[in-house]
Amino acid sequence: MSTQDLPLTGVRVVEMTHMVMGPTCGMILAQLGAEIIKVEPPAGDKTRSLGGMGTSFFPLFNRGKRSVVLDFSKAEDRETMHRLLASADVFLENFRDGQLEKQGLGADELRRKYPHLIVCGHKGFLSGPYEHRPALDEVVQMMSGLAAMTGTVARPQRVGSSANDIMGGMFGAISILAALYQKRGAKAGDKAADKGADIRIGLFENCLFLVAQHMVEYEMTGNKPRSMPEREHAWPIYDIFETMGGERIFIGVVTEGHWQSFCREFGMTEFLEDPALRTTTDRILARSRIIPRAAEVIKGWNAAELSATLDRLNICFSPINRPEDLFSDPHVLRPGGLVNNFNADGAPFRVPALPIEWNGANIGEGLKVPVLGADTAAVRAELDQQDLSSTGKPAARLA
Predict the structure, then answer these.
(1) In terms of DSSP H, where are the helices of the chain?
(2) Phi, psi of 117 (to 5 degrees)
């Protein structure tokens, strides 16, 4: 897909973020066509050098951006930053409150100098008693109850990805799109057309949003929600089973039609004839005898034939995959399912496409991870050219 066909073509975003949440927001906007100018210190974003589970952080969340190195101890670089902000539609940051104020880049100062600018800060918490605290994905999972729901009472467990950081970046992108829509939808001459927005995204509140279903369950029933490993099942068959070859498969039988088809196909018609199993509630209460019988039957099937049969019956199922298994999954390998991108050293890597189709096409093919500072000179030259084009004379130096 041509970048000219993308919806955010022409939008300029200046990004000063690190780790995962803020960079995710910029990465999504970049894939939708925005120009993302990532401002880094001379030593570069610290995630560039992470190893282990952090190896993928910088390349994954900074694809498609331009890298500009600025040293704010230098007056010239501080001036370049302000020229960038004057030319931008959006400013992304994820620093602790008070840090950017020291650089003259606090929200109040930016609002005074650049009233058109959409400022989006990704923080640990929204405004309130905890707003001063730093936060991490695992911290907010423990605070919000998500870890308790994922693990057990005795052993809370975080989700196995940076789910909140990534989702926080998504909420940032959603909010920015709303602010751009508000500006562009305003009538000519309307103050809203030139007015920016102050947006704050909270990692904790993002996680709170994820557990709202459990909070509301308690609010409505007075019953304390049980963790996922200890929960009361809502369906008669919603479990992991072992097949003939020792492979495991998850099966979810969740409708009356599925129940009828499953019992007939797998020779468990005694359940259909049992008057004590007429309703879904009856069957849930009888799981202690239904599940062992189903496990016995499924143990006699090989995984491939079982999967094909469940697919034919339109019953939900899944193999128990690990991340590395997905590089051989036929749906992941469909045209456009994985896109080819390039690390800062030029090495190619495959990554799942942005999970949308835009006019029938996938997004994100050919993105490059920027070399540290690779675009500094070009961006400075572009700013000079913009100033010449608009004023006919070189840019005035900021005091």
Answers:
(1) 21-31, 57-61, 75-87, 107-113, 137-144, 146-150, 163-185, 203-210, 212-221, 256-265, 269-272, 280-285, 287-298, 303-312, 376-391
(2) -80, 135
List the structure tokens of 54. 């952090």
What's the rounded Cα separation, in Å, for the pair 290 and 273? 13
User: What's the whole-model pTM score?
Assistant: 0.89
Residue 64 CB neighbour total at 10 angstroms:
23
Other C-beta atoms lying within 10 Å of the C-beta of residue 228 = 12
Q: What is the pLDDT along the chain (399 residues), one digit of tens a residue?
A: 555 689 999 999 999 999 999 999 999 999 999 999 999 999 999 999 999 989 999 999 999 999 999 999 999 999 999 999 999 999 999 998 889 989 889 888 999 999 999 999 999 999 999 999 999 999 999 999 999 999 988 899 999 999 999 999 999 999 999 999 998 877 666 666 678 999 999 999 999 999 999 999 989 999 888 887 777 677 899 999 999 999 999 999 999 999 999 999 999 999 999 999 999 999 999 999 999 999 999 999 999 999 999 999 999 999 999 999 999 999 999 999 999 999 999 999 999 999 999 998 899 999 999 999 999 999 999 999 887 776 555 554 443
260: which 2 tokens?
A: 């009828």
